[in-house]
Design a protein that fits this description.
A hairpin with a 4-residue loop joins strand 4 and strand 5. The chain has three domains: about 150 residues, Beta Polymerase, domain 2, CATH 3.30.460.10; about 200 residues, cca-adding enzyme, domain 2 (Orthogonal Bundle), CATH 1.10.3090.10; about 50 residues, no CATH class. Helix 8 packs parallel to helix 10 and helix 15 packs antiparallel against helix 16. By secondary structure, it is an alpha+beta fold.
Length: about 425
C-alpha cells in the first residue's frame, strides 16, 4: 500500500452528509472510503461534484445499517454492488469493493471482495484510482498522485486492454485530458485510442452524446478536439466535417461576452454549417428535442446575420425570438473568422439585453373594420401589415398604426381586385 499524503482541504470529510455516511459504514470490521472524482477534484482544489464511496461491506449490510439510523437506501445497482443512500437530500453511491471477472463492453461480471488495491486497478485512469479514508489519508496504488501533479491523464494498466473493456474510455480519455490535463495527451494512451477507434461504432448514441457535451465545455476543449481530429476520431463521431476554427472562435466569443460555456452552442460551432449538418448530428448523437431545434435554427441561413445594422438586427430578433437569435448570431460570429472585429458582433449579441421587441399592436378587428372578410384574406392582410410595421421600425403611435393599417388594406384590395 502507498500512502503519499493527507488531504486537509476537503470540507466534506469533516462535516456534512458525506462524513455521516463514512461514519455509518466504518467500524465493526468494515471500512469505507471516498473514491474517484471527488478525491481527484479535492487534490486539484476544484469543486467535488458527486461524492462516491466504496466499502468492504456487502450491499445487504449497507442497506441494514442505513435502516437502523433511518437513512433512505435505493438499490440502484445492487447486482453490481451499488446502493444509493440519500442523506439530507444528497445522494451517495455506495459500491462494494469488487473485481471484474469478465468484461464485455460496459457490462462486467464482478465478484465482491475486500481488496482496495484490486478495486483501484479496475478503474480507468490513474487520477480516478485514488481513495481517501475518513481521517484524510490518501491511498494511491496506481500512481495517481504523481499524474495529478503532472496534470497527466494516463490509463491504469495496459491502455489497449482498458479500452477494449469499454470503448467509451476513448472519449473519456480526451474529455478528462480537456478537463484536468496539460500539454499534449499521454502519448501511449493517445496511440491506444487511435488503434481502438473502430470500437466507437459499438457505443450507444446516448453515451457518446453525454461524453461529447461534457468534453466541449471543458477548459482544454480546443486542444482535445484538435488531437481527436488528428487521430481520425471525430469523423466517426460527428459523421461529417469538424470545424475546428469556428469551434475555437465560439469559445473566444463566449469569453468576450463573459458567458458560461454552452455545450449546444459549442457543438453547433464544431459540427454545423447547414441544417443538414444539424439533422445528421441530432440522429447520430440522439440529441434532445431542445438541442435538435437549437442546432437546426443555428444552421438555417446564419450568414444573413453577419454585418447587420441595428434596425435589421431588431427585425431578426423579433422574428426569431431571443434564444434563437442569440444562437444563430453566435454561430455567425464564430464562422466570421479569427480576424473579425469583435466590437460589432458584441453589439449585435447583446441586443436582447438592451431591447425587447414589442408585440404587434394591430388586430384582426382593425381590418374587419376596413372591409376585410374573415378567413385567409384576414391572415394575409395581417401579414402585410406586420411586415410594414417591422419595416417602419416598430412604431406604436396611433397615427403611424392607422396609416399602416390603411395602406395594408388598400394594397390587399388592389392586389386582389377582380
Amino acid at each position: 500500500m502507498t500512502i503519499d499524503r493527507v488531504l486537509h482541504d476537503a470540507p466534506w470529510l469533516s462535516s456534512g452528509p458525506a462524513m455521516r455516511v463514512l461514519e455509518l459504514l466504518n467500524g465493526d470490521g468494515e471500512e469505507a472510503r471516498v473514491v474517484g472524482g471527488a478525491v481527484r477534484n479535492a487534490l486539484l482544489r476544484i469543486p467535488a461534484g458527486d461524492i462516491d464511496i466504496a466499502t468492504t461491506a456487502l450491499p445487504e449490510e449497507v442497506v441494514r445499517r442505513s435502516k437502523v439510523v433511518g437513512i433512505k437506501s435505493v438499490p440502484t445497482g445492487i447486482g453490481h454492488g451499488t446502493v444509493t443512500l440519500v442523506v439530507d437530500g444528497q445522494p451517495f453511491e455506495i459500491t462494494t469493493l469488487r473485481q471484474d471477472i469478465e468484461t464485455f463492453g460496459r457490462k462486467a461480471k464482478v465478484a465482491f471482495g475486500r481488496d482496495w488495491v484490486g478495486d483501484a486497478q479496475r478503474r480507468d485512469f490513474t487520477i480516478n484510482g485514488l481513495s481517501v479514508s475518513s481521517d484524510g489519508t490518501v491511498h494511491d496504488y496506481v500512481g495517481g498522485l504523481q499524474d495529478i501533479a503532472a496534470r497527466r491523464v494516463r490509463f491504469i494498466g495496459y491502455p489497449d486492454r482498458r479500452i477494449a473493456e469499454d470503448y467509451l474510455r476513448i472519449l473519456r480519455f480526451f474529455r478528462m485530458h480537456a478537463a484536468f490535463g496539460a500539454g499534449h495527451p499521454d502519448h501511449v494512451g493517445y496511440l491506444a485510442c487511435i488503434r481502438g477507434r473502430a470500437g466507437l461504432a459499438t457505443l450507444s448514441a446516448e453515451r457518446v452524446r453525454m461524453e461529447i457535451l461534457k468534453l466541449v465545455v471543458a477548459k482544454g476543449a480546443v486542444d482535445a478536439v484538435v488531437a481527436m481530429e488528428d487521430g481520425g476520431l471525430l469523423l466517426s463521431i460527428l459523421g461529417g466535417v469538424a470545424y475546428r476554427g469556428p469551434f475555437a472562435n465560439m469559445i473566444a466569443a463566449e469569453r468576450d461576452l463573459g458567458q458560461k460555456p454552452n455545450a449546444t452552442l459549442r457543438l453547433g460551432a464544431l459540427g454545423v454549417a447547414t441544417t443538414e449538418d444539424a439533422r445528421r448530428l441530432a440522429i447520430r448523437l440522439r440529441l434532445t428535442n431542445g438541442e435538435t431545434k437549437a442546432l437546426d435554427s443555428m444552421g438555417h441561413r446564419w450568414w444573413r446575420l453577419a454585418g447587420m445594422d441595428q434596425a435589421t438586427a431588431r427585425r431578426r430578433l423579433y422574428r426569431l425570438g431571443a434564444a434563437r437569435y442569440r444562437d444563430r448570431l453566435m454561430l455567425a460570429w464564430a464562422r466570421a473568422g479569427v480576424d473579425a472585429d469583435p466590437a460589432p458582433w458584441r453589439e449585435l449579441a447583446t441586443l436582447p439585453e438592451r431591447w425587447s421587441a414589442p408585440k404587434f399592436p394591430l388586430k384582426a378587428a382593425d381590418f374587419v373594420a376596413r372591409g376585410i372578410s374573415q378567413g385567409p384574406a384576414l391572415g394575409h392582410v395581417l401579414t402585410l401589415a406586420e411586415d410594414a410595421w417591422l419595416a417602419a421600425d416598430f412604431p406604436l403611435q396611433e397615427s403611424a398604426l392607422t396609416a399602416i393599417a390603411d395602406r395594408s388594406a388598400e394594397r390587399f384590395a388592389r392586389d386582389h381586385r377582380p
